[in-house]
Specification:
Elements (H helix, E strand, L loop, with lengths): L1 E3 L2 H6 L5 E6 L5 H13 L2 E6 L19 H10 L4 E3 L3 H4 L17 H5 L3 H16 L3 E5 L3 H14 L4 E5 L2 E2 L15 H22 L5 H13 L5 E9 L13 E9 L2 E12 L2 E5 L2 E2 L11
Parallel strand pairs: 1-4, 2-3, 2-5, 3-4, 5-6, 7-12
Antiparallel strand pairs: 8-9, 9-10, 10-11
Helix pairs in contact: 6-7, 8-9
The structure holds adenosine monophosphate.
Length: 298
């Protein structure tokens, strides 16, 4: 595995089908699952690691976002990726960008409404990675469902020659979706955070039993999270998988998205619900058997 700092060096190492896994580092098994998917489908696997200031708001956790390049490099190597692209700020943004990417509509609700400019930052940095590395395939987690919708729409609108692959959410054994931010949770907060996945799984069970009303489905999840002390639900919204717009009835591919705060940590989770053989099947992701590497000493 080679560590490179410039787009030219990253591009020069690409042979055959190039797969890109964009990350902000502090890797966990969710990221590793994306690298595994890329490894199984591509000749060259490039993992990018860049904590992108453009996607953080002024009062967000840019300064405290966890960082550990040595740990990440060891994990990327163990996952058999070929290249770790870890650019410095001056390489990614030689100057304050005068050109940025705004993806309309799909970024209006949910995270876009709460975090002004966030998806402009995401779309801009992802566009730069696509332009600079020219991947044939790019891998994103369904964990950030609205981000995935946004990236797919950007690729459609701007004709980037990359196939977007969305991968299932990886969870702790008890259901909590893996996130680099989980290390900020103390044991009590960690316990409260479990209510998010519990609420989503309860909604999934209702969908499997035939519930189709968004209000009912959302209500099931909200009731579970609201019933837990120490966690503040921001929203539980059933959204169209292609447009991220709220839906009132489950009659098209959708995702049930949750955002909640535990102390100062904001957590996101969702389940995807797709049609299959005439029914609606929730995808709740996959679970680890052991606690995540996030909680183990390097
Ligand atoms: P991040 O480093 O948080 O920007 O995430 C990099 C990529 O990993 C994004 O495409 C995320 O959606 C994906 N990702 C983060 N957490 C998970 C998870 N628990 N399961 C699957 N993918 C994830």
């Amino acid at each position: 595995m080679k560590i490179v700092e410039t787009f030219a060096d990253a591009r020069a190492l690409g042979r055959g089908c190039v797969g890109l896994v964009p990350t902000m580092g502090y890797l966990h098994e969710g990221h590793i699952s994306l690298i595994d998917a890329a490894r199984s489908e591509c000749d060259t696997v490039v993992v990018s690691l860049f904590v992108n200031p453009l996607q953080f708001g002024p009062n967000e956790d840019l300064a405290s976002y966890p960082r550990d390049l040595d740990r990440d490099a060891a994990l990327v190597e163990a996952a058999r990726a070929d290249v770790l692209f870890a650019p410095r700020l001056e390489v990614m943004y030689p100057d304050d960008p005068l050109t940025t990417v705004t993806v309309g509509d799909v970024t209006e609700g949910m995270e876009g409404a709460r975090r002004p400019g966030h998806f402009d930052g995401v779309a801009t940095v992802v566009a730069k990675l696509f332009a600079g590395i020219v991947p044939d395939r790019s891998y994103f987690g369904r964990k950030d469902a609205q981000q995935l919708v946004t990236v797919r729409r950007m690729v459609l609108d701007l004709s980037f020659p990359t196939i977007i692959v969305g991968a299932p959410i990886v969870r702790e054994a008890d259901g909590l979706a893996l996130s680099s931010r989980n290390i900020f949770l103390d044991p009590r907060q960690r316990d409260a955070a479990r209510s998010i996945s519990r609420g989503l799984f309860a909604a999934a069970a209702a969908v499997t039993a035939g519930e189709r009303s968004a209000r009912e489905i959302e209500g099931i999840t909200s009731a579970v999270v609201d019933g837990e002390a120490g966690i503040d639900l921001d929203y539980a919204t059933l959204a169209d998988q292609e447009t991220a717009a709220p839906v009132t009835t489950l009659d098209r591919p959708a995702f049930l998205a949750v955002a909640a705060s535990v102390g100062s940590t904001r957590l996101l989770d969702n389940i995807h619900i797709d049609p299959y053989e005439g029914g609606w099947v929730p995808d709740v992701g996959t679970r680890l058997r052991e606690p995540s590497i996030l909680y183990r000493e390097a």
